[in-house]
């Protein structure tokens, strides 16, 4: 039995982007990776639209918004900040693990009709589906 590598996805609220990244890795790459997510200021919930767009691609995610404090002292192989560098301050991880930034816009800040907001969530999800496999393959 092989030991899976651990990846931690970080953002501020841990309600959308880091949750989607965690769910994608645990659903699609769970033979090699175990994913976790956390935020520096957790919202206390996972955004319903994040859960909905994951469900559209066959991923049933029942995440919990978590604080980075829960993961202090745990060694990760990879720590990924997923906040949008231009618009937000990314959290700093002081623990072990290769640190990488892979920014995505915050879909929770999308405005417009219900369909336009869902489109923003889908765009982030699809961007993650495209970028995360290459990131994991490089570790």
What does this structure look like?
This protein is α/β, with parallel strands linked by helices. It has a single domain (5-137), classed as Rossmann fold (3-Layer(aba) Sandwich). 32% of the residues lie in helices and 16% in strands. It contains three helices and four strands, in the order E-H-E-H-E-E-H.
Question: What topology emerges from the helices and strands here?
Answer:
Layout: E1 5-11, H1 17-28, E2 33-39, H2 48-56, E3 78-81, E4 98-101, H3 114-137
Helix pairs in contact: 1-3, 2-3
Features:
3 helices; alpha/beta; globular; single chain; Rossmann fold; 139 residues; four-stranded parallel sheet
Provide the CATH top-level class: Alpha Beta
The helix/strand order is: EHEHEEH
> How are strands sequenced across the largest beta sheet?
2-1-3-4
- Within CATH, the superfamily carries the name Response regulator
Q: Are there runs of 5+ residues with pLDDT below 50, and where? A: none
- Please give the largest β-sheet: 4 strands, parallel
The gist of it:
By secondary structure, the protein is of the alpha/beta class. It is built from 3 helices and 4 strands; from the N terminus they run βαβαββα.
